[in-house]
Design a protein that fits this description.
It is built from four helices and 21 strands. By secondary structure, it is mainly beta. It is elongated and about 80 Å long.
């Protein structure tokens, strides 16, 4: 009897296909682990309303930007941290999400964007302690606005989401997991309004003291420790302007993370605003303002305005030949940038 090799091979191939569709061997199956189909979305808010109602009466000409232009954009990449009894596992995905196989015994998940430059992550292995802060920054010409406060860069845009419940995943199953990331960093639009003398100003920069030094990743609550944020300003016809990123005020439970505003402390913390200008003759001049009242209803972003700033003509009489294009203004700062966290 002549053996038909062609038909035999076809039959064998059919048996292999049938077996592969009806069973799975661990040593042969490349899709053995279950997957979660993560889809990411973002809440693009730059401030929270606690009574100021900036959105309803926003004046783009007055504040130098439309309300929507202040909204942070979506990040460039996201990290998912899976917490399990033996430690943590990290997974990297696009801003849209992706399919992730994170194994068994995972009790919670934390998501955050990983495209930051000035953010430092601490204690990520312990979910209750995991928090973000900003890099240190010093300015030789700035006196201590608040005793003992660390001076820092404005933090980058930071989003986060916490999932205390992990879907049960079965073999060869892709379970949808929608995640909405919320901002942990907010923006303050700061206006320095001159009564007279803005024509004498060549450069300007500022600082705001009393702001939260860090924020907890799990629930968006800020730490009790305060820091002073240093930043540069843009000169305007009325004086100077800045958009300053911040974690917000210290010790504030964010109601958007399941907390209640009523838990705020009754005794207000002090908040201090600084403006340092370099005149066209090279002279440095500092102004300090108490903005505690303005911060009471703006714990997460908003607008700060200080007025009646004056520089008299006789303060800028002598011309030292200062060149506003020189880099000495920037070199007065010692910026400390650590290695990006892993």
């Amino acid at each position: 009897m002549k053996l038909n090799i062609h038909n035999t091979l076809l039959a064998a191939s059919a048996l292999i296909v049938a077996a592969s569709t009806s069973s799975c061997r661990k040593d042969l199956c490349y899709n053995h682990f279950p997957e979660a189909g993560v889809t990411l979305s973002y809440e693009n808010e730059w401030e929270r309303d606690y009574g100021m109602e900036w959105l309803s009466g926003w004046d783009a000409d007055l504040y130098g930007s439309t309300y929507d232009n202040l909204r942070p954009g979506n990040p460039e990449g996201v990290t998912m941290v899976a917490y399990h009894p033996d430690g943590i596992s990290e997974f990297y995905m696009s801003t849209a999400g992706g399919n992730v196989s994170f194994g068994a015994n995972v009790h919670s998940l934390l998501f955050y964007n990983n495209d930051t430059q000035y953010i430092i992550l601490n204690d990520m292995a312990s979910l209750p302690s995991a928090r973000a802060t900003s890099t240190s920054r010093s300015r030789a010409t700035l006196g201590e606005l608040h005793a003992g406060e660390r001076t820092i860069n404005p933090p980058d845009v930071l989003y986060a989401a916490y999932s205390p419940e992990v879907p049960e995943l079965k073999m060869h199953e892709n379970v949808p997991l929608p995640v909405r990331l919320q901002p942990l960093v907010y923006t303050y639009v700061i206006r320095y309004e001159f009564d007279y003398g803005q024509q004498h100003v060549a450069l300007a920069r500022g600082a705001v003291a009393g702001m939260a030094e860090s924020v907890y990743m799990r629930d968006g609550v800020t730490s009790d420790e305060a820091a002073t944020i240093l930043y540069d300003c843009t000169l305007t016809p009325y004086g100077a302007r800045a958009e300053v990123a911040s974690f917000g005020v210290p010790g504030f439970p964010d109601e958007y993370y399941g907390r209640d505003e009523s838990t705020r402390r009754d005794t207000p913390r002090p908040y201090t605003l600084n403006l340092e200008v370099k005149l066209t003759n090279g002279t440095l001049k500092n102004f300090t303002f108490d903005i505690t009242d303005q911060m009471q209803h703006q714990p997460r972003g908003g607008v700060i305005v200080v007025k009646d700033i004056r520089i008299e003509d006789d303060e800028n009489l002598s011309d030292s030949g200062f060149d506003v294009n020189l880099e000495d203004w920037g070199l007065l700062e010692d910026i400390i940038i650590p290695v990006h966290p892993v």
